[in-house]
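Dear H.,

Thanks for agreeing to be a second pair of eyes. The structure we're designing against is below in token form, covering all 290 positions.
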């Protein structure tokens, strides 16, 4: 193997928020980002289809000398990771590793919440899989978890509408539905890697909703606005910890500080939108997955 890249995969642009978090912490490694933009969103697709598409992407990253691949996509982590780890890798790629984003997030969230009431905002697929609920309950049995699917949020981001006034309605609607399920929530996981782009609107709407809820509440007005957990920084520290615990993998990774971008959509379209996530110009290469 001439190079050892860290591969990062997402259905589209969302995983760039994970890549960004990881590169800020570990800029010295070499990375390859793969976005399956032509087939995004994955959020409403079936388990079988998400597995098939994710496996195709993982195989491509393996071909491109990535001994380690991070599924920087909650939907793929929820629907495909387990099968890849338990069925595919042992048989076809025993020396490679594929990691997801749900467990590292679940590990930290239970230690952050004070009320132990946690809300998860994610795609329909991630919420229906109940992966966050199961993972957090296993690690932090004292926590209560409720989830809310936000079907319009990924299209808002993928179509560059996330900072337009039209997005306010959909952001408020999903937040209201989440808080209605459990007003004691003090910590909210953005369980989809696209959502950090909506953060300014989420914070603004949340502050307004919390004020209204507090005025209406007869029970507990001590609650402050729930805090938001963006995943990038937690995935980065979890990866750093993983590499510390697995020196045999760390030794296989090269340190040239490079980053390549692959997309199943047109390279120019990717370049245009990626700059919204990374605030820098990137060059992308078109690839096909099968
Ligand atoms: N960014 C992906 C996630 O974290 C999903 C977006 C989609 O393809 O629906 O869940």
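And this is the sequence the design step returned. I haven't edited it by hand at all.
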């Amino acid at each position: 193997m001439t190079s050892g890249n860290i591969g990062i995969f997402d259905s589209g642009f969302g995983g760039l928020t994970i890549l960004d978090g990881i590169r800020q912490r570990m800029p010295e490694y070499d990375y390859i980002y793969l976005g399956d933009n032509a087939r995004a969103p994955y959020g409403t697709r079936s388990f079988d289809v998400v597995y098939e598409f994710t496996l195709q992407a993982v195989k491509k990253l393996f071909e491109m000398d990535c001994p380690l691949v991070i599924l920087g996509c909650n939907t793929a982590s929820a629907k495909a990771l387990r099968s890849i780890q338990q069925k595919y890798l042992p048989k076809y790629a025993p020396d490679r590793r594929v990691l997801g984003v749900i467990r590292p997030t679940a590990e930290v969230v239970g230690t952050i919440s004070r009320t132990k009431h946690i809300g998860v905002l994610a795609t329909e697929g991630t919420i229906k899989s109940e992966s966050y609920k199961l993972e957090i309950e296993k690690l932090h049995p004292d926590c209560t978890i409720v989830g809310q699917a936000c079907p319009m949020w990924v299209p808002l981001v993928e179509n560059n509408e996330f900072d337009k006034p039209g997005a306010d309605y959909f952001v408020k609607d999903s937040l209201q539905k989440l808080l209605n399920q459990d007003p004691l929530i003090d910590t909210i996981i953005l369980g989809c890697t696209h959502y950090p782009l909506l953060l300014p609107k989420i914070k603004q709407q949340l502050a307004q909703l919390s004020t209204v809820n507090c005025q209406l509440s007869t029970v507990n007005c001590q609650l402050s606005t729930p805090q938001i957990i963006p995943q990038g920084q937690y995935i980065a520290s979890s990866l750093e910890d993983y590499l510390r615990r697995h020196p045999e993998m760390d030794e296989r990774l090269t340190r040239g500080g490079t980053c390549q971008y692959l997309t199943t959509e047109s390279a120019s379209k990717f370049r245009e939108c990626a700059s919204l996530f990374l605030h820098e110009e990137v060059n992308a290469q078109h690839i096909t997955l099968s």
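Two observations from my side: The first strand starts at residue 6 and ends at 10. The chain has a mean pLDDT of 93.

Warmly,
E.
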